[in-house]
Amino acid sequence: MEHHLVVTAVGRDRPNIVNQLTRHVSDCGCNIVDSRLALYGAEFTLIMLLSGNWNAITRIETSLPLKSQELELVTVVKRTTEHEQPNYSARAHFKIKINDSAGIIRQFTQFISDHGLALVSLRSQLNHQILELEMIAYISDEQTIPPQKMREQFETLCHKLCTESAELQIYPQ
């Protein structure tokens, strides 16, 4: 039976650090199913979904605290199950450029929440006080608001917040 583990690692970015961590994962007999790496200031963040048999997952869980200390990393691990994606009828892709201010991202995540969408990806980057925000959300089969109405409400929000540019694309699944 295959088991799954989510591992998050944060530490000072330096050459070979990711290689040392992924080598340890491999040495424990785990497979990296999915991963994301990002640099924030002088720190790197790595999130991985690992799979393996019970022994391999237990090995990484018990050995990672010592390895993390050796590599000067802060790590968090959590067992999980394989993701079962519910049926969604469409995918909404939001792209926004706006002058940055406190609470801007919350305004857009609130819009997604209010419309019952499942947020699956959020990426933001600040360039010279201009926030570039990109989000992907799934629209369930039970969604009652027609896509055109959602676009109109999104445009109203963007106008209210004085976005520099905003785009909402809806793609069928």
From TrEMBL:
CDD domains, A to Z: ACT_GcvR_1
Compartments in which it is found? Cytoplasm
InterPro entries, A to Z:
ACT-like_dom_sf (IPR045865), GcvR (IPR016867), UPF0237/GcvR_regulator (IPR050990)
What biological-process GO terms show up in the record?
regulation of DNA-templated transcription
The protein's matches in SUPFAM superfamilies, at most eight in alphabetical order, are given as: ACT-like
Q: Which domain of life, per UniProt?
A: Bacteria
Q: Name one Pfam family in it.
A: ACT_6
Q: Which UniProt keywords apply?
A: Cytoplasm, Repressor, Transcription
- Which GO CC terms are listed, alphabetically? cytoplasm
- Record carries keyword Transcription: yes
Protein name in the entry: Glycine cleavage system transcriptional repressor
